[in-house]
Task: structure prediction
Amino acid sequence: MDQTNERKYVAQLALILAAYGKEVEIFPPDWEKRPEGADYLYRTGVVLVRDEDVPRVIELFRGGRPAEGGIGGVTRLLLPAEVPPDAPEDRSYTQRFLRYADLRLGRGVVTPEHLFYVCPSVSPCPATEPEEVPPGSPPDPVLPTPFLPAGAADGRGVKVVVLDVGWSDAPAAYWLGGVTGDPETAFDGSGRIRPYAGHGTFIAGVMRAVARNVEIVVKSYFTTAGAMWEFDLAQALDEVLDLAPDIISLSAGTRTRFNLPPLGLDVFIKTRLDRINGLALVAAAGNEATRDYFWPAAFPETVGVGALADNGRDRASFSNFGGWVDVYAPGSELVNAFLTGEYQCTEPPHAGELREFGGMARWSGTSFATPLVAGLIAGRMSVTGENAVQAAGALLAFARTQPVPGTGPVLQAGDALASL
Result:
């Protein structure tokens, strides 16, 4: 990580620390001195435990109180004030409980409550803040003609729910007509565009650029510095099942303690997602330029999406990678719908720079490769009649027949029907 990116990384985490204060901790505590930076962020004084393990964990910890909410199968446990006297020493109160549980019960029985974050601007990577484009710039990927022939892979009849920062109507972007969602708080007290604002709108625009008539609902969950707690994310994913989506698109995630699956999402996938026939979860692989697992993209039940460089072949320098990434798709220098107004950059080397937007932007990140793949799945479904899992499986099988050396399986914007 070069010096510029180190400064950028610190600035990105500073936004989270300012928003969450003492509620959040970073592991390891000396992360600023490490070339690889932080491993993960987690909640102070809280752990996650499977419901069936709660009694023995409370007994081991000599206290603790289950919190309300969440989903059946996992409990948010509020830690007792006193650490057991025989717990191992650690600078962190929460980490002492975690290490104690590791020693007595084994790794993974008790886990931190990780903080999940949207992918283009929070993680330690060179994925960009939104950039201005000249007035009248067309979207990239290029929009299909609005007069689509019968049988086109336009996503008609397919519903995608996007979990993100919310929805900001973009009247100039005619291709977003009919998109709905929860309104986001896009502007700060000074009238400037907030960090992370417009992220959900841009995602919807990319998906519509691939599947012109797909139904999209953008939900507002990542409302605090573009982040949310694991327990709350599991509950949010459970809630959106009520909307009966075919596809869930999630451009957010995290690395975890010991690279283990995050407990809250593991329970959601095993007890909720896997029990709904044909529902696909498409998730961003993250922007840390590492092969470490990034969750939930690393779950075998999800479609994990990495980003291609702007040449359309090489892996983007910021994209996470490894055998757990299912496919790579365009995610660099994409152009699509954004907000109108003034934005002040927060990340070096552009910190403090003012940018003026007129409804369009250029943006990079695995966040935006993800809706492109979701759009391809929707487009194929609208032609073949397959469900989302079947369509995703067919597209991934096609991508694996022509992997790019040094990158892996690749899908392009026009590949919805390539395997037919």
